[in-house]
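Ticket #4471: structure export looks truncated?
Reporter: QA, pipeline team
Priority: medium

Steps to reproduce: submit the single chain below to the structure queue and open the exported record.
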Amino acid sequence: MQNTRDNGLPFMKMHGLGNDFVVIDERGKPSRVDSELAIAMADRHRGVGFDQLAVISDSDSGADAHLTFWNADGSHSAACGNATRCIARFLMAEKQCTSLSLTTARGTLLAQDAGDGLTSVNMGQPQLHWQEIPLAEEMDTLELPIEGAPTATGMGNPHCTFFVEDVAAIDVATEGARYERHPLYPQRTNVQFAQLIGPDHIRMRVWERGAGLTLASGSSSCATAVAAARRGLTGRKVTIELDGGTIHIDWREDGVWMTGPTAHVFDGVWNG
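Actual output as written to the record:
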């Protein structure tokens, strides 16, 4: 019998705080990933299941690798913070180093071993102008003309952050799906519901564009921290409690740094 690995597609299953990914290493290989494959693998009953699919390929700019991201619905995403941290941890172990650079559609991102099993990634400067996010028309991004006056932020992908009194009282699946396709967001948006629970301490739940309700989101955590700082609710260094665990965000002069745990769950071969 022929070894299935001769024709199958090797992959890794990883997660950051329950935000889960299929990771395919295509370095030195022709690409086999397209929208149809992403949708098939994303199926949690007939496929592998993931929030995002990430592809590692060779970088043309001298970085350690290039990353491409697919959502569960087969659409592209320019940024995926938790997947970037997971892959950075994998590559640092492979290369036996404590820092590296990764190129994405968002730009070049720096990653570091933060110690105690934690990994940090600089997600770059937030996009605060309406055209960069992008929004459909010119407006103040601090408080959008939407009920609840959410804040718009770009982190390579668009975000809409609502600050609420009690996040547990929000039907995130219903409200997230509704605002994901709001007319002000021509490329759809990630939606966050955030509650201040202490000084520089936020409880947040997230609906991800193209993926739905997730246990965590790195770029959403960055966007929420930036929005909270801009509104004077917190400083620029915050702890965010997600459904899947805790992540730390630090909005520095050189960009928004995100630090948290990662997990490499298992390796497999796709024969679909």
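Status: closed, not a bug. The export was complete when the record was re-opened. Leaving a note from the reviewer for reference: Confidence is low (pLDDT under 50) at residues 1-5.
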